[in-house]
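Key result, reporting period 2: structure in, sequence out.
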C-alpha cells in the first residue's frame, strides 16, 4: 500500500503520481487518486494498492514490493506491514 504524506492523519492531496508499468505478476490498484489536467495525483490517505502473485506468499510479496519500489510521489509512505511484510517506512 502506498499512502500519502500525513497518513493516517490528514493526508496531503495534489502530489503528482508516477506509476511504473504493471508486470505479469504485479499490478497497481488506484484508491485515493484523482486526475487533474491530465495528470494523476494523490487525493486521499491510502493512495495505491500494489498486488503481487506468486507460488507462495513470499513470492507474491516480493512481486508487489518490487513494483511498489518504483511508484513515485512526494511524501510517499510505503506500508510494508500489510500482507505479512515488515513495518511501514517513509520513503
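The corresponding designed sequence is given below.
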Amino acid at each position: 500500500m502506498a499512502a500519502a504524506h500525513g497518513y493516517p492523519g490528514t493526508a496531503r492531496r495534489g502530489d503528482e503520481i508516477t506509476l511504473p508499468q504493471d508486470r505479469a505478476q504485479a499490478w497497481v490498484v488506484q484508491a485515493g487518486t484523482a486526475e487533474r489536467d491530465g495528470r494523476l495525483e494523490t487525493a486521499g490517505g491510502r493512495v495505491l494498492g500494489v498486488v503481487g502473485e506468486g507460488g507462495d506468499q513470499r513470492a507474491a510479496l516480493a512481486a508487489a514490493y518490487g513494483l511498489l519500489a518504483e511508484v513515485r510521489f512526494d511524501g510517499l509512505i510505503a506500508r510494508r506491514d500489510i500482507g505479512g511484510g515488515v513495518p511501514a517506512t517513509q520513503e
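Residues 2-90 form a domain with the Glycinamide Ribonucleotide Synthetase; Chain A, domain 4 fold (CATH 3.90.600.10). Residues 14 and 47 are 11 Å apart (CA to CA). This case is discussed further under Risks and Mitigation.
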